């Protein structure tokens, strides 16, 4: 979600993401995976996603990579809210704990993420995915490297 247009290039990460939410035209990955950024605040981000059978593994459950991508997206956007204009980031570590099977019966998934450390060159964040009944499906954490864009 680091794609910036000329009119957003000078925005802080938080302002940029708020602009993206207001004018959502998700990047290809988000569209492909049927997920979208729904809210951001200082050090926090929330995504929603809708699992479909096309994302199943051979066991007829949602592929673990789907939940990992959802977490990585929310964690990364939470980190981005802490960054000033012209500063980028990249995931250098992602840890995911799967605690419940996920399939279409889970309904809408909500992934919330929060920054737990914001250093000068590295940030860490944690997040969780809950289903439409509020049951925890997965949780995880990530470490992100800061770099000038």
Describe this structure in words.
This protein is α+β, with helices and mostly antiparallel strands and 149 residues long. It has a single domain, classed as Hotdog Thioesterase (Thiol Ester Dehydrase, Chain A). Helices cover 21% and strands 38% of the residues. It has a 6-stranded antiparallel β-sheet with strand order 1-2-4-5-6-3. A hairpin with a 3-residue loop joins β4 and β5.
List keywords for this structure.
Thiol Ester Dehydrase, Chain A; six-stranded antiparallel β-sheet; 6 strands; alpha+beta; 21% helix; single chain; 149 residues
Topology:
Layout: H1 13-22, H2 28-32, E1 35-41, E2 44-49, H3 64-80, E3 87-98, E4 109-118, E5 122-130, E6 136-148
Antiparallel strand pairs: 1-2, 2-4, 3-6, 4-5, 5-6
Q: Which runs of at least 5 residues are low in confidence (pLDDT < 50)?
A: 1-7
Molecular shape: globular
**What is the CATH first-level class name?**
Alpha Beta
| Annotated CATH architecture | Roll
> Number of DSSP strands?
6
Distance between the termini: 13 Å
Oligomeric form of this entry?
single chain
The secondary-structure element order is HHEEHEEEE
Structural class: alpha+beta
Bin the helical content.
10-25%
* Amount of beta strand: 35-45%
- What would the average pLDDT be, to the nearest integer? 92
The total tally of domains equals 1
**Widest β-sheet, arrangement of strands:** 1-2-4-5-6-3
- CATH topology descriptor: Thiol Ester Dehydrase, Chain A
* Rg for CA atoms: 15 Å
């Amino acid at each position: 979600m680091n794609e910036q247009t000329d009119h957003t290039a000078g925005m802080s990460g938080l302002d940029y993401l708020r602009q993206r939410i207001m004018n959502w035209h998700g990047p290809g990955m988000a569209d492909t995976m049927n997920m979208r950024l729904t809210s951001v605040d200082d050090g926090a981000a929330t995504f929603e996603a809708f699992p479909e059978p096309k994302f199943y593994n051979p066991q007829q459950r949602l592929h673990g990579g789907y939940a990992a991508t959802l977490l990585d997206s929310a964690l990364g956007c939470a980190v981005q809210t802490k960054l000033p204009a012209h500063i980028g980031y990249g995931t250098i570590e992602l840890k995911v704990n799967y605690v419940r099977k996920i399939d279409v019966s889970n309904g809408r998934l909500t992934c919330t993420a929060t920054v737990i450390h914001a250093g000068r060159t590295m940030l860490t964040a944690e997040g969780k995915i809950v289903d439409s009944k509020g049951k925890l499906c997965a949780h995880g954490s990530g470490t992100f490297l800061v770099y000038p864009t």
